[in-house]
Amino acid sequence: LSVSATASTKETSEPTSVQRVPARDAFNGRIRVVDIKGGADEGMSNVGKDYEVRGWVRTVRDQKTFAFIEINDGSTLAGLQAVLQADCEGYSCISDKSLSTGAAVLVKGKLVESVGSNQKVELAGTKIEVIGDCPTDYPLQKKRHTMEFLRGIAHLRPRTNMIGAVTRVRNALAYATHTFFQERKFLYVNTPIITASDCEGAGEQFLVTTLDVSGKEAPKETPPPPPPPKGGGGGGADVR
């Protein structure tokens, strides 16, 4: 008992460290879409559970007395459909057309079995809240966009299924490669890249070559001196 009391006193006397990351109590109830419907049964085992989903609106279909909203948070390619009745809390954002594609929303509700054929489950929403609205000139729509068009909106293209699929493939390949070498005690280091490509003036920064590119002619080598004559001697003339 005395040891425990001493240890307890020592712990309380030491100063506590400063918390650098702010508390995120508001996000404790958030769950990813992939955790809801990403299993083998596509979410059927979660039917009847209450969820709070946060993400971006893919599509909004207002049917006057109710509305369909597809929400995607980037955790999976397929979004989660939410069905909101007109008496739902916050439904005014749909009735006054202020909610559009690209807006960030929070939707609370219960997961139910879907009567549609495109998905097995859907969220019967009881509350919707707009976290961040979206301007009317938002370029991404439900239709498929060309790669040329996406190059002009590099900050938004990760929200598309095409770039999302490519990113997931690259992530899986990089993870598998690093895991393979890490398990065999290799170290990952960033080495200088020597390449023949001259991108953005990198070739003017430094040059790696085995050729003489100075433009000057190499000095001519002087021939070696002739070997001395055989027999030695002082080099004087013979007298007869």
Tell me what the structure shows.
This protein has 240 residues and is α+β, with helices and mostly antiparallel strands. The protein has helices at 2-13, 33-37, 92-95, 147-151, 161-182; strands spanning 50-62, 66-72, 80-89, 104-113, 121-132. Strands 1-2-3-5-4 form a 5-stranded mixed β-barrel. Mean pLDDT is 81; it is low at 1-24.
Outline of the structure:
The chain has 240 residues and is of the alpha+beta class. The protein contains five helices and five strands; from the N terminus they run H-H-E-E-E-H-E-E-H-H.
Topology:
Blueprint: H1 2-13, H2 33-37, E1 50-62, E2 66-72, E3 80-89, H3 92-95, E4 104-113, E5 121-132, H4 147-151, H5 161-182
Parallel strand pairs: 3-5
Antiparallel strand pairs: 1-2, 1-4, 2-3, 4-5
What are the low-pLDDT stretches, counting only 5+ consecutive residues below 50? 1-24
Strand order of the largest sheet: 1-2-3-5-4
What's the β-strand tally?
A: 5
Strand content is 15-25%
List keywords for this structure.
240 residues; alpha+beta; 5 helices; 20% helix; disordered N terminus
